[in-house]
Amino acid sequence: MSPMAISDSKSFRNPSRRTNTCMISFAPGCHPTSQRSEDLQFALLLTYITLGWMTIEGAASLVLGWASKSLLLEAFGIDSVIELFSAAVLLWRLRVEASGTATSEYVSLVEHRAARLIGYSLYALVIYVILNSGYGLLIAKRITDTDESVWGILIGVVAKIGMPILAGYKLKVAARLNSPALRADAVESITCGYLSIVLMIGLAATWLLDWWWLDSVAALALIPFLTKEASAAIRSESCCRTK
């Protein structure tokens, strides 16, 4: 991820470095400030891009994963489905504030609920990875069809290029809006970018070295990161409250 994205991530975690945009209180039915409105519109654009890409990526990964018997490619597809849910929840949260008709208390409530829902979706991904990897290693021992998995590598390449860029912009806007929900959604984009690397390495190793077990083992490496971010999202609370 880019240095700018990392810097924005740090500023989001450190309240003393955050922008004071979210500290502005809105009267009931009042529109946000001009800068905040622009940030909201940009966040909505990023969310629509996520919805479109995850629909394509998820469908392609699940079909190719089933055809090639690749657990890692299937997990990548499931991750895309979970990201679709996350993006849909985030869209709800952003549209509530962007409408300009909601009170700041309601916006804060929606923000908190959205962050929790997205956090739970991360836990769902953890459970799926554990079960699917365990099944692949201990029971199924499925052999990946390397001819089909080549297409999975191409999906991984595209995701590796696009997801870090998308995540970087999300983190930047999340810091300005002080939105734990948007940050949690950015984490899912980061996860997608990381998993795309795991996907490419796992499928390439299976293709070249016949290491059928590697994709399941590699997928398990995501668990500590996902668990930490899921817990942070569920515990988070927005600072955007009416004073």
Task: Describe the protein's architecture and organization.
By secondary structure, the protein is mostly helical. The protein has one domain: Cation efflux protein transmembrane domain (Alpha-lytic protease prodomain-like, Up-down Bundle). 79% of the residues lie in helices and 0% in strands. The protein is built from eight helices and no strands. The protein is elongated and about 55 Å long. The relative contact order is 0.18. The N terminus and C terminus are likely disordered.
In short:
This protein is mainly alpha-helical and 243 residues long. It is built from eight helices and no strands.
Class derived from helix and strand content: mainly alpha
CA distance, first residue to last residue: 36 Å
The CATH C-level name is Mainly Alpha
Helical segment count: 8
Number of strands: 0
Q: What is the architecture at the second tier of CATH?
A: Up-down Bundle
Question: How would you sum up the global shape?
Answer: elongated
CATH names the topology as Alpha-lytic protease prodomain-like
Spell out the CATH superfamily.
Cation efflux protein transmembrane domain
Low-confidence stretches: 1-30, 237-243
- Number of structurally distinct domains: 1
Percent strand: under 5%
- Along the chain, the helix and strand elements come as HHHHHHHH
Q: Note the main sheet.
A: none
Q: What would you report as the Rg, rounded to the nearest angstrom?
A: 19 Å
The average pLDDT is: 77
Helix content: over 70%
